[in-house]
Every structure is written in structure tokens, then in C-alpha cells.
Amino acid sequence: MLTIATGNKAVAAAVKAAKPGVVAAYPITPQTEIVEQIAEYVTDGDLESQYIPVESEHSAMAACIGASAGGVRTFTATSSHGLLYMHEMVHWAAGARLPIVMANVNRALGPGWNTWAEHSDAFSQRDTGWLQVFVGTVQEAYDATLMAFKIAEDERVLLPVMVNLDGFALSHIMQALETVDLGDFLPPYHLPHAIDTENPCVYGPMTGPADYFRFRWDIERSMRDARGVIAEVEREFAERFGRSYGPTEDYRCEDADVVVIAMGTLGKEAEVAVDRLRDEGIKAGSMRLRWFRPFPDLDLAGREVVVIDRDYSFGFGGVVAHSIRSKTGVVPYSVIAGLGGQEVTYNDIADFVRNRHPGTETWFGVSDHV
Amino acid sequence: MPGTECLRYVLKAAGPDSVLVVPACCTSVIQGIYPGTAMNVPVYNIAFAAAAACASGMSNAFCALGKETNVIVYAGDGGTVDIGIQALSGAFERGTNFLYICYDNEAYGNTGMQRSGSTPLGARTTTTPGGKPTGKKDLDRIVEAHNPPYMATACSAYPLDLYKKVKKALSIEGPKFIHILAPCPPGWRYPTEKTVEMGKLAVKTGTWILYEREYGKLTISGPSKAAMKRPAPLSDYINGQGRFKNLSPEVMDEMRQQVERNIQRLSREEAGVC
Questions:
Q1: Residue A86 to residue A89: CA distance in whole angstroms
Q2: How far apart are CA A96 and CA A103, in angstroms?
Q3: Domain of A126, in residue numbers
Q4: B39 vs A200: CB contact, 8 Å cut-off?
Q5: Which of A54, A265, A277, B263 could form a disulfide with A169 if both were Cys (CB 3.0 to 4.6 A apart)?
Q6: Residues A47 and A165 in one domain
Q7: Three-class SS of residue B179?
Q8: Residue B63 at interface with chain A, using a CB cutoff of 8 Å
Q9: Of B17, B87, B94, the CB nearest to A53
Q10: CA A23/CA A51 separation, integer angstroms
């Protein structure tokens, strides 16, 4: 069905279609619309879920862990400080191999209070064992949420998935949304290690170094296998519903001399910048990085690269720029932009490309090249 | 270990269709090391602050699946009165169908006896080497403020009383709470063979009062009825424990007054004079 919706409403609609047994959530700006909409679905009988209005995000993830292990599909949504507050349980969910799906509406971190878009919240969780996907449109927020359940619950993965969408810039923006009739795209929830009193097991007891180390390796092995599972699920989704996705969304990259790499809504903005630059005769392309964990293999050989980071690792550098550099060997021009919701237009992005200095870093509007 | 003894009676009463949710506490250790286990029911180990919330999700999942499995949190005092109190309060306020059991040895025993909010006035722990300057947090009145359908106190020295209370709790829908006093030989510094005696002295001196509160109505349990009328001298309980060594007369007096106040408050309430 074709409709218009905000990014938040699109996520809620996907959750309704996925029919989780339990949704546990705590409200935080700019995620609130997701949990409000789901509460409304449950109250109106449009979604038969147990809705747990927990007293904190730490408890939201703990409740999802208990519910997922208890044998039902589970969803939560958060943002920024909420994500940081649940950090301990974010690690726990992955370590317990639970296919929880969480929408994270990317937002800056205090102080000072700032509710606008930034990716530092999600990146602070990058080593937890969660799969992380970043979306750029309302439609993609819906599609990625649906696919997240299927990817997470695949027995080759059994790891939680975080669907990231930019606060306000996408969460509150209205765009066209085509909802789908899921059919049997999502199989019934089946967790091989679900709690069963007929077959009592102990979960997460004291564990010696040898077993513990093996469990960590199992997480990494599944993370590697997840690349193939993601590709399979995205292919099946394209076949069933006609919209295809990959680890990156490439725009005019085939013959590009310079490629802009950004994430989320800035990655969509970059496509407009690319058109502008092409008009000037600059052979530019845009590569919007969708999957951040597992990090995809990228082919950037022979190209100049401009990376826009809406985040920063203090004392080190832009997280995406350094990831690209370490994974591909390409030394990019690193632009730090959009922190705390700073406005970054396609004209600005075109300027980043025009004025690029590979091997240096600049803080847009704040510092010169450093 | 009293916490373990109590767990035997809890599980005997609960039966096999039960799941234990265990935050960091002595029970995290005594269940055994992976892949072995000493337990015959599923045990879900969870982070320190998260037991009640995890149980909340599990209880709702079982409800969604139409299962009537008992969800029981088995947590120490640190995981309950301190770091876990927010999740506990939330789960009770939401009316979660589960049983929360706190076995209370009045300190962080698993990490070597540091003070907790449940440590009583004057008790020496590794972080209150001069004796705790403030009193024990009254967890039961905090839980009571949530108006649960059932709550009770118990003591490891009265296993039959505990067994009956667990049975009754699990027959009631909604959030239930049982607070067990579990004396700890190394932490309280008394010989292990005096563990039952120590628990009985806690009750006989009126330091620990056994009761049930069903839908708000208080009933003092048998062993405490006599104790509240003619409590044994507090020194019988205090003098046998190394943690209370060299208490000042002022602290001893304050402890006596606290015991007296509790006895009077609960007696009046049971008699309907509030």
C-alpha cells in the first residue's frame, strides 16, 4: 500500500508487520513516535504484542533479553543517551546470541543537551557484537527493519541487529512509503536455545577462559557469515518486493574519479552534490555506506575518496574515515560535519569535493585543514 | 551456605516448571562452572542491575506463548536494595507476574563482604571497617509501597515457613516478593555450625520479623508472634557475631530502639491500630 510516513512511523509499521511477541521500550526524543505508534497498534488490537513500558533503557534491553530467550520475537527502539544507558545490556544481548531488533534514532550526546542527528551514539556500540545498518530514506527504514528480523533470526547469525536512522533529518521527515504484504517472508520465530523447562539449561554461568574465548570466536564467525546472509535476505527481498539493497548504495560510481562516502541522510544529500559536480565536469560518485557491522569489503582502488563523518573518536579521528583507511588502504580526505545536527547541504558536500586535500582532516565550519 | 539452602526449599516449593533469573550474587557462583550445572531448572544469569527487568520480559514472553511457567528472580541484597532497585520497582509497578526473592546476608558477600544498603547499623564490613554509620535500608516498606498482592519475610533458619510462603506466592497472579534473611558465616564472622542458631536468634530477638502481607493485610508468622511479645535480649544475637565487635553503647542502644520500633509498628498494624 502506498502512503506517506515519517521515518519513525515507517519503523513502527514494519514492526507491526513483523508481529513481535514482546516490545519493551522507554521513550526518548526523537524516537518517541516509534514507541507511541506501537503502543497505539497494541491498544487498538492491530498488533498482538505484549508491550512493556519499562522504567529505563537498561531495563528495556534486559526485558528484550528475557523475552527473546523466553521464545518470542522482540523489538525495542531508542536513541542517544538511551542507547548509552543500555550499553551493558547491548553487549549482553549479543553475547547471549539473541536476535533482538532495535531501531536507534541517531542523536548527539550531552552535554549540552542536543536532540539532533549524529552517529556517535551508534558508533559507541560498534564493538558489542550487534549488526548495524544505517538507512537514508523512509522507505529504507521500513524495509531494513523488516529484513533485520530475518537476518537476526537466521541460525547462521543469531545476533541482534540495530537499524539506525538520523534523528529529525529522517525520523521526522515525511516521504512516500510503500508497505508490503509480508506473506511468509518472515518465518515463525525459532530460537534453538530458547528456555525450555523440559530441557533445563543454565545460560551465561561462570565460564572459564577456554570456553569463553570460543564463544567470542563464535560471535565473530557469525558476524562473518552474516555478510552472506544479509546478501541472501536482501536478494530475496528484492525478488519479492522489488526494492534492492546492498552493503553500500552506489550512485554514479562506475566511472567516478572521486567518491564521497557518507552514512544516513548525508549519504542521500551527497547524491545531489554528485549531480552538481558532474554538471561542472567533475567525475564524482556517491557511495552511501549502509552496513557498518559487519563492515563490507569495498573496492576503492584508483579513486580519490572524501569521507564525511557525523561522529568523532576524540584523540584519533573520524570513525568512518579511519575504517575506510584501515579496510581499503585508501587515504581519504576526512571531513567531520553535521555533529549535533549541524546543517550540511549538497552545496557544502560539493565544496568538500572541490576543495579536497587527501590525507588531511577538516571540521566543517570550525577548523581549517589539520 | 544459607542462600543455597534456601534455594533448595524455594525450588522444592516451585517445582520443575520454573525458571530462575539470577543477577550477580553468590548463586552465580554456586550453580557450577560451564558446561556443568547443579540446577534442574533453567537458570538465566543476567547483569547485576537487570534481574527484575529480564524476568519481566520473560514473564511477558511466556504469557504471549500461553505458558504458565514460574518466573523467579533469586537475587542477593546488593542486587536488590542497591543496584537492582530501579528495575525491581518498575517491574512491581507494572504488575509483572513473577516472584522476586531477595536472600539477604546484609553485605556484598560474593565480592568479599563490602557494605550494601542492607548492612545494619554498626556492622563492620571491608568498606565500613569502623562499623556502618547508618541503618539498614527498609526494603520491605519500599516494596510494600508498590501494593503487591503478596509479600513476605522469611529466614533460612525456618525452612518450612519459607517453603509455605513460596508455595502461596506462586499461587497468586502478579508481582510477589519474599525477603529472606540469610546469615553468612564468613561475613558475619561466626562459626558455620551456628548458622541455624544465628537465624533463630535474629527472629527471637525481634531483629528480623517473619510475616506475610496478602493484598495489604499483615499476618505475623508463628515464630515471630512469641518473639514479639517477649523478645530475647538483643545481645544474644549481637555478641555472637564478629562484625558487631566493640559496638559503642550508643550504637547498641540505637539498635535496641530500632528493634523495639519495628515490633511496635508491626504489632499495632496487625492489631488494626495504626
A1: 5
A2: 19
A3: 2-179+194-241
A4: yes
A5: A265
A6: yes
A7: strand
A8: yes
A9: B94
A10: 5
- The pLDDT value recorded for residue A96 is 98
* Residue pointed to by grid coordinates 580519490: A304
Q: Which domains does chain B have, with CATH numbers?
A: 2-270 (3.40.50.970)
Task: Give the CATH number, domain containing residue A308.
Answer: 3.40.50.920
Tell me which residues of chain A have a C-beta less than 8 Å from any C-beta of chain B: 21-22, 24, 49-50, 52-56, 58-60, 62-72, 74, 88-89, 92, 195-197, 200-208, 211
pLDDT the model gives residue B274: 67
Phi–psi pair at B100, nearest 5 degrees: -105, 120
Please determine, for residue B1, whether its predicted confidence score (pLDDT) is greater than 90.
Answer: no
The fraction of chain B above a pLDDT of 70, given in percent, is 100
User: Amino acid letter at A303?
Assistant: R
Q: Min CA distance, A5 vs chain B (Å)?
A: 29
Burial (CB < 10 A; 0-12, 13-18, 19+), residue B194, is middle
> What average pLDDT does the segment A202-225 reach?
97
For residue A93, give the H/E element and its range.
Answer: helix A87-95
Could you read off the pLDDT of B50-85 as tens digits, one per residue?
999 999 999 999 999 999 999 999 999 999 999 999
Q: Are A283 and A363 in contact (CB under 8 A)?
A: no
Residue A185 domain flag: no
B42 contacts in A (CB within 8 Å)?
A: 195-197, 200-203
DSSP lists the bridge partners of residue A73 as: none
pLDDT in tens, A273-323: 999 999 999 999 999 999 999 999 999 999 999 999 999 999 999 999 999
Inter-chain residue contact A66 with B93, CB threshold 8 Å: no
User: What three-state secondary structure class fits A56?
Assistant: coil
User: Does residue A9 lie within any of the structural domains?
Assistant: yes
Total domain count, chain A: 2
pLDDT band at A369 (very low <50, low <70, confident <90, very high): low
A258 and A222 both lie in a single domain: no
Average of per-residue pLDDT across B185-201: 97
* Whether residue A217 sits in one domain with residue A140: yes
- A92 lies in the same domain as A168: yes
Same domain, A212 and A105: yes
Could you tell me if A134 and A281 lie in one domain? Answer: no
Selection from A28, A95, A39, A86 nearest residue A59 by Cα: A86
